[in-house]
């Protein structure tokens, strides 16, 4: 459990403290996620809701690995086909998806810690493995849809011209408007999540100190 706590601290610093990820934090995050996935396979780690959330958090770094590999393939093979727009837009969108999934899952872990500290008995029916799995799946589905929308918007913008057909025009303007709205919303949501997480751990810290 000490290693899992260190991993959570690393992830909080990477996603909720640092303004943007850098090569060092990304590399340490990937190593930490790999080590965490190995730990979670051990029989010594009980299957609880927190472990399910941490496992999903570690798996989110698969998106980072795919992003790095795709960039390396583009540089190695010097892609100059019509798929260049797709391959150039994919890595940043995968990194964005990874950041959003990680921030949401970290906030779920913080909220669970809050419930355990202040409402251990009353919240027991909420803190179940089933609910943790459902929450993780919902977050993954939500962010996957967001990533697909961002990817579609980037591809349409890379084409340089708006589609001429009626369905194409509707798709172009819908994806552009929705993507812009989501990017603005995710920015403000990120700020709110940072504030909420700081408040939760502030309350937990002083509650444990008083005890």
From TrEMBL:
Residues 32-211 form the G-protein coupled receptors family 1 profile domain. It is a multi-pass membrane protein. The keyword Metal-binding does not apply. The chain crosses the membrane at residues 12-40, 52-77, 97-119, 171-202. GO terms for biological process: phospholipase C-activating G protein-coupled receptor signaling pathway; positive regulation of Rho protein signal transduction. One of its GO terms (molecular function) is G protein-coupled receptor activity. It is found in: Membrane. Keywords: G-protein coupled receptor, Glycoprotein, Membrane, Receptor, Transducer, Transmembrane, Transmembrane helix. GO terms for cellular component: plasma membrane. PANTHER family: G-PROTEIN COUPLED RECEPTOR, GENE 5127-RELATED. This is G-protein coupled receptors family 1 profile domain-containing protein. It comes from Pterocles gutturalis (yellow-throated sandgrouse). The lineage of its organism: Eukaryota, Metazoa, Chordata, Craniata, Vertebrata.
